[in-house]
Amino acid sequence: MYKERYDFWLNNDFFDEETRIELRGISKDEKEIEDRFYKELEFGTAGLRGKIGAGTNRMNKYIVARATQGLAELICSKGKEAMNRGVAIAYDCRHYSDVFAETAALVLNANGIKSYLFDELRPTPELSFAVRRLNAISGIVVTASHNPQEYNGYKVYWEEGAQILPDTADAITENILKIKDFSKIPIMEKEEAIEKGLLNIIGKEIDDEYIDRTKALSLRDAEIDKSLKIVYTPLNGTGNKPVRRILKERGFENVYVVKEQEMPDPDFTTVGYPNPEDVKAFKLAEEFGSEIGADILIATDPDCDRLAVEVKIDNGYKALNGNQTGAILVNYVLEANQEKGTLPSNAAIVKSIVTGDLSTAICDSYGVKMFEALTGFKNIFAYANIWDSTKEYKFMFGYEESIGFCVGDLVRDKDAVNSAMFLAEAAAYYRTKGKTLLDVLDDLYEKHGYYRENLVSLVLEGIEGAERIKRMMESYRKDYPIQIEDMNLVRYVDFRTSDDVDVKNNERRLTDIPKTNAVKYYLDDGSWYAVRPSGTEPKIKIYMYSKADDLVKAEEKLKQIETTVMDKLYSIE
Predict the structure, then answer these.
(1) Looking at 145, 402, 527, 546, which residue is catalytic?
(2) What residues does 139 pair with on adjacent strands?
(3) Does an H or E element contain 319, and which?
(4) Which listed site, 15, 61, 474, 546, has its alpha carbon 20 to 30 Å from 142?
(5) Are strands 307-313 and 316-320 parallel, antiparallel or unpaired?
(6) How many other β-carbons are positioned within 10 Å of the β-carbon of residue 385?
(7) pLDDT over 90 (residue 536)
């Protein structure tokens, strides 16, 4: 089947010459042909994500056009009002991002649907804001987030400003699967689309309102030390302008950008893997920070929805992971609101099921409700979308351990512009108390217990890798350790079947968290771990958390969990 698809793309005049030249170049590489054509690039709740190139299992303008046609048919089915509300579209710095974004706009226009296309690259959270601000029915952002440079992606948002949930993704997928002939997908000429008022270019007016309304969320201003010295790197992505602008307009006087990583670069030449969760991405920032004596280093990923921070110590800089940064921000937001008398009685915070529990202990101390959601901010902000109408809770903050954060519900996605502002504000406030962010974290550990965490990602690419990941999940579900050193399994939740099993009392109930392919195992000392395949990358991910009364014990327990679980997984061929 894959060979037939290859031949079709190679010999069909509908596909442009650039595409067919690329395919002729792999004519003698059977494995590459198979990888590009053995399946269709799957449209899921995260949209599309894959390597750029010609083929059905690659990101290219034809695959983007087909996905957009699937979306267009869903919008058209909802009537003229939905079509007139239109779709907001943004894109990042990656190869072909602008081409894919314009392709999407013009396919929508050919279906009679209005589009709002940003005039140049923008951060993903601003797309979420634009959907809400323009009252659009949907949104698209072309990005592969923090993936390596050979990737690109396509994410779809719905009218609330959050990424689509499974029911909407399924409806789009159903439409996509009906499209067998790429040449039948309509696309309008750009000039005609503009002339008919279908293609609308947006820019500064959305920028200004997004920045102004984000600034309005700030909690402290006059009482913080704005002389805090910050080194910022956008990692050659979309964060350069908005992050620097918001910090400048908040009055931070000493913000320095890493020059080599200031401008957009789709090859990420200076960093390679543009993921600020990986401390190697901070190499140039650390060098520059040491040179000028920066207090904190901030890095954002290419589409500026995720953020990481490092804090100055005696001999360099220490990185905070997503759990630690999230706990600090939870504490700061609740502390500042309580101090100001603005903490609602129905305040709530939402984190993912694979995020640590220090923040839950902090919430308990403030009498604030903590909710858990599946990974992905579409699930975190699903709560805010419901509370918009029910008013049952007030969404204060949402976050994931994978360095995604958002204070408030102005946008409905993780927002590194928002979190950069709040992180700088928190660091500047605690500086007036003679404390760094690391000191604050130590205080939280002292008060709530010592929490340690680790994430191991096993990368298993290709068909063989996908099959092994599947075997690992199936085998581990059937045969998991009931004891790790002196820690005993007391409960597990299989989110695929919704089974929440009390092992100690042999009781079973159903969890109300939506289904996903993940299992979470709870131990009797408050430690836990979870196993799940990545939804966007060829990885199986193992999240491990320990809790103890002191740091040494917490580290020992974490190592014991890692050794036991990883030995078990590695044994599954």
Answers:
(1) 145
(2) 88, 157
(3) strand 316-320
(4) 15
(5) antiparallel
(6) 18
(7) no
Of 92, 142, 126, 90, nearest to 209 by C-alpha is 126
Q: Which amino acid is at 168?
A: T
For residue 181, count other CB atoms closer than 10 A to its CB: 9
The pLDDT tens digits of the residues spanning 331-354 come to: 999 999 999 999 999 999 999 999
> Are 356 and 450 within 8 A, CB to CB?
no
Backbone angles phi, psi at 496, to 5 degrees: -75, -35
Rg (CA), the chain: 24
Structure token digits, residue 405: 């954060």
CA dist 399 → 20, 514, 520, 563 (Å) = 44, 18, 18, 28
CB 413 within 8 A of CB 377: yes
Listed in sequence order, the residues at least 6 apart from 386 whose beta carbon sits closer than 8 Å to its beta carbon are 392
CB proximity list for 413: less than 8 A, separation 6 or greater: 124, 125, 127, 128, 157, 161, 162, 163, 305, 377, 378, 381, 406
Burial class (CB in 10 A: 0-12, 13-18, 19+), 554: buried
Print the SS3 string covering 402-466. Answer: CCEEEECCCCCCCCHHHHHHHHHHHHHHHHHCCCCHHHHHHHHHHHHCEEEEEEEEEECCHHHHH
State the pTM of this model. 0.94
Please count the CA atoms within 13 angstroms of the CA of 282 that sit on its side-chain side.
23
Structure confidence at residue 504 (pLDDT):
86
Q: Which residue has the tokens 């307009």?
A: 249
For 218, residues 6+ apart whose C-beta sits below 8 A from its C-beta are: 250, 421, 422, 425
Beta bridge partners of 138: 87, 158
Active site residue 145: yes
Q: Which residue bears the tokens 């993704």?
A: 169
Q: Which amino acid is at 18?
A: E
If we measure between CA atoms, which residue out of 42, 54, 134 comes closest to residue 90?
Answer: 134
CB atoms inside a 10 Å sphere around CB 459: 11
- Whether 46 shows a pLDDT value over 80: the answer reads no
CB atoms within 10 A of CB 190: 14
Q: CA of 178: how far to CAs of 155, 174, 428, in Å? A: 20, 7, 55
> In angstroms, rounded to a whole number, what is the distance separating the alpha carbons of residues 52 and 406?
30
Strands 347-352 and 394-400: parallel
